[in-house]
């Protein structure tokens, strides 16, 4: 089951549920789902970690809705690290921001291979205009574990910056995520 489709209440219930079968009055509680082979402790733990990850992502995203994203860049970095954790392929993320740089909506816009993702500036323009975004922060991951931006990453950033400026949308930062490292183009003077 996809945890992103669950309500917050369902996620919390799953977090608080016992990992092992419970016994009531000396009898094992059995539901229809339990009639098949019992899940392994590893799959139960993986499910619990997936639920915890989803709760954290939602809480961090909610914090980014409340105020300017770059006022607390650690929240954004934590969200990016958590979102990209364990991905074995590149993704390109867009965070659509309002005029006060509060999060409107994050979106995984493109998905690629182990070493590259194709990014189409036209799609960023369409998404920004559809959401009435004044600015964007973009990010992508490097599954290789090396957070250093490539020349292609720098060229893409400049292309996106000039394309989006035609419709009065600014790119405030581009992040590269690799494991627990997050590199900011703005901090390096590349934006």
Q: Can I get a quick summary?
A:
With 191 residues, this protein is α+β, with helices and mostly antiparallel strands. The chain is 38% helix and 21% strand.
Polypeptide structure, described:
By secondary structure, the chain is α+β, with helices and mostly antiparallel strands. The protein has 2 domains: 1-16 and 38-66; 73-184, Cytidine Deaminase, domain 2. 38% of the residues lie in helices and 21% in strands. The protein is built from 5 helices and 7 strands. The chain has a 5-stranded mixed sheet, with helices on both faces. A two-stranded antiparallel ribbon has the order 1-2. A hairpin with a 2-residue loop joins strand 6 and strand 7. It is globular and about 55 Å long. It starts with 7 loop residues before the first helix and ends in a 7-residue tail after the last strand. 22% of the residues are buried. The model is unreliable at 23-28 (pLDDT under 50).
**Proper CATH architecture of the largest domain:** 3-Layer(aba) Sandwich
- The backbone outline, from C-alpha atoms, is globular
Percent helix, as a range, is 25-40%
CATH topology of the largest domain: Cytidine Deaminase, domain 2
Low-pLDDT residue intervals, each spanning 5 or more residues = 23-28
Mean pLDDT value: 85
Number of strands: 7
CATH class of the largest domain: Alpha Beta
Topology:
Layout: H1 8-16, E1 23-24, E2 27-28, H2 41-66, H3 73-84, E3 91-97, E4 103-111, H4 121-130, E5 135-141, H5 151-165, E6 170-178, E7 181-184
Parallel strand pairs: 5-6
Antiparallel strand pairs: 1-2, 3-4, 3-5, 6-7
